[in-house]
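Deliverable D5.2: sample structural annotation.
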Amino acid sequence: MKKIFLLILAGLLVFSLLGCSNNSAPTNVEEQEEGFIPEKMVIGAIPTQNQGDMRGAMDKLGVHLSEKLGTEVEIEVYPDYNGVVEAMNYGQVDMAYFGPLTYIIANETGGAEAIMTLLVNGEPYYYSYMVTHVDSPLDSLEDVIENVGNLQFAFGDVNSTSGSLIPTLELKEKGVFRDQMDTDFKEIFYTGGHDAAALAVQEKKVEVGAVDSAIFEVMKRNGVIDGEQFKIIWQSEPLFQYPWAVKRGTSDELKEALRNAFLTVEDQEILDVFGASGFALAEDKDYEPVRQAAKADGRL
């Protein structure tokens, strides 16, 4: 009996010690991870221009972020916009460079959070343009509507804000575009990028194209297109610039470290690929107008 009592007592003592040990260890996962900078960060980027043209600048940005964060940073330019959304949703990237529309989709489906954006001429705004060839008789959106049945229109990526969503809503309002399979145009194309849409206009493969204003200026400056060959016939209201967003659950300390790293970018090659003069802080509410536009177009 005495032996049984001693065994019970020993068991209780061990259980008690284990309990004390567990209580002294951190049990809050968020506390353990707060301020955690991973050994490697992967950033996905949409292809606003030809992937090859973006590669050098993205590599330099990766080196800059690596130095500021003290960890390896790899930036991958994806072949299409939706690929970056999927990469964020499936946890394949820690951060992403989105267009406003793709950010809204990633926020709704995967909890992405905007923390940075671009400055163009000191302002965090850009526009959607409709452009025609300088030789075209089309001088306004009204001219496009009047001749719609004879025209071919080049959009960018189907998930682009300025290259698809915003001009589509304008054309819907004018009654000549109902959905991608039902328009009054002779033909429409989704070229996959702003450069491809602009080149289609320059080479007279289409009569009208939709492009991002900031990227349009970069392409002219870098000789990707000949600016003398274009007319801007329509301009949207200002749109908040493209966001850099982190994945759901990113710690506040890491977000702050990323903000500080982006704010110190001064390399002109990096800035030029975005048509930017610098970076600025952003938050989800900055993209509320695009969220409402996406809902109006049935994309959310």
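Annotation notes: The domain at 128-236 is CATH 3.40.190.10 (D-Maltodextrin-Binding Protein; domain 2). The longest strand covers residues 113-119.
The annotation will be released with the project's public dataset once the embargo ends.
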